[in-house]
Amino acid sequence: MKYSDLKSAQAFVGALFDFAAAQPVSRYVEPEPILEHLDRALSEPVVERVLREHLRPALDRELKRAKVRDDRLGDFITAEALAELRSLAARPVKFKRKFLEDLVKQDAVSHLVRSLVQETLDRFLGTLKPGGSGGGVVGGVARGAFGLANSVSKGLLGGIGAQVESQLKSAASTFVAGSMHVIMDRVVGILASPETGARIGRMNAQGFDQALKMKTAALVEQGLTLPVDDLLEVVPGLILHNLSRPEIRAGLLEELRLMLEIVGQRPLGELLDESGSREAVRAELIAKGAPLLVEFSKVKATRA
Questions:
Q1: DSSP H helices in 105-245
Q2: Residue 95 DSSP one-character state
């Protein structure tokens, strides 16, 4: 059939759209073929090319645009969304005790807490000897009790020599080593408490407020200080790995089937009506498709 004039082509494209919109969604969506389409569209060579030719250059261009815009992160968020997000950020944090216990059992965390406790005890012991904070705790007591600052302090403090100091530090180290289990249990208890959760929530809210003031260009620039090329290099393999996992494929198929149970028998046009885009899509399809149809009608068929 020839559609050499634009008007007849427009009528045909409009009728074709109306026919397609009247068909149920299930005529267009089938779970199994969709997975095959995903496999082809997200194959490693395709993803590599898209990242190399489009995404990576787009990041550099976005940095330039962000510098010109000179906007801040908060400019991207409406007042309504801002209130909701801040409310979520300020919610008290509740950690699962098992998670905290697994966390503090790590060598790095245990070493950090041990070092802090040991340093605190060492500082305390430092206040007991002459020259310590306030001239030494013993000297301070002597001065307060007897009012003989020089002679009495020297007499009492003179008994704390290098040997006693070494013994005290050794005893402190032994105490810390033997008390780590109790200390770490206490750390878990503090982190799991409602008071700590509320404090963390307030801290998150303050951090959220500060983040909104950050310039977009600074955020993009900071992101690009990461080894972006190296990170993008592993993305194709990551996608391929997960698409090939049987449990992931089974989950995708299940979700597609459940979706079709809800909308599969509804005409496509109804979904377009719900979004208010039916007439706009129809008009655009006619505007773009009719000239193509006229042009196509003038092409001689080269094969059946």
A1: 107-126, 137-146, 149-157, 162-192, 194-212, 216-223, 228-243
A2: -
CA dist 123 and 125 (Å) reads: 5
CB neighbour burial string for 189-201, b if at least 16 within 10 angstroms, e if fewer = eebbeeebeeebb
Per the structure block, which two tokens stand in for 230? 């190296």
Contacts (Cβ under 8 Å, ≥6 apart) of 40: 46
Cβ-contact 20, 282 below 8 angstroms: no
Q: What is the pLDDT of residues 132-156, one digit of tens each?
A: 554 544 444 444 444 444 544 444 4
In a 13 Å sphere around the CA of 22, the CA atoms on its Cβ side amount to 6
pLDDT tens digit sequence for 199-230: 999 999 999 999 999 999 999 999 999 899 99
**Angle in degrees, 0-180, between the axes of helices 107-126 and 162-192, rounded to the nearest 10:** 130
At 244, is the secondary structure helix, strand, or coil? coil
